[in-house]
Amino acid sequence: MISHELQTFIIAATPVIELRGAIPIALFNYELSVTSAFIFSVLGNIFPVIFILLFFEKVSNFLSQRSTFFKKIFEWLFARTRRKHQGNYERFKDLFLVIFVAIPLPITGAWTGSLCAFLFGIPFKRAFPLISLGVIIAGAIVTLISLGIILI
After folding, report:
1. Is residue 19 in some structural domain?
2. Residue at 151 is within a domain
3. How far apart are CA 83 and CA 104, in angstroms?
4. How would you write the chain as a 3-class SS string?
5. What value does the mean pLDDT take over residues 42-46?
6. By the number of CB atoms within 10 A of the CB, which of 8, 38, 61, 96 ranks highest?
7. For residue 17, what are the domain limits?
8. pLDDT at 89
């Protein structure tokens, strides 16, 4: 049996759901403490960032060179992401990445923030702390919303 803490970590590590889903599940389904829900969700959400930042370029190049299907998907994804976020990144630089990850809305978060960091050439040593800070802020926002302290 997998502990509720590990389940929370895994849920937070998944794309799309991330900690936006993990924190309410941890609080209300698993009945974890606020502290445990927050910590395991934040750590789970940060965990894949390391691998995305370090290996996404290698994996996307490998797949693109061997498959026209993947080449077309990555070209579309990269062009779309650059088109949608290049102006904001150029204007706000590092603050953009933190805010982009921190806002707990669909299509924002650690996974997409990591992709943006890769596409804009932000080195790991700079991108990782910025994305981590965004995840911590998002975790605080989602926790406060889940507890009814912030009303949306």
Report:
1. yes
2. no
3. 21
4. CCCHHHHHHHHHHCCCCHHHHHHHHHHHHCCCCHHHHHHHHHHHHHHHHHHHHHHHHHHHHHHHHHCHHHHHHHHHHHHHHHHHHHHHHHHHCHHHHHHHHHCCCCCCCHHHHHHHHHHCCCCHHHHHHHHHHHHHHHHHHHHHHHCCCCCC
5. 98
6. 8
7. 4-146
8. 77
Residue the block writes with tokens 């698993």: 30
Residue owning tokens 């965990």: 47
Identity at 25, one-letter amino acid code: I
Tokens, residue 54? 């370090």
- How much of the chain, in percent, has pLDDT values that exceed 90? 73
Report how far residue 92's alpha carbon sits from residue 82's, in angstroms, rounded to the nearest whole number: 15
Structure tokens at 124: 């790991």
* Amino acid letter for position 76: W
Query: What angle (nearest 5°) sits at the alpha carbon of residue 83, between those of residues 80 and 88?
Result: 130
- So what's the pLDDT on residue 74? 86
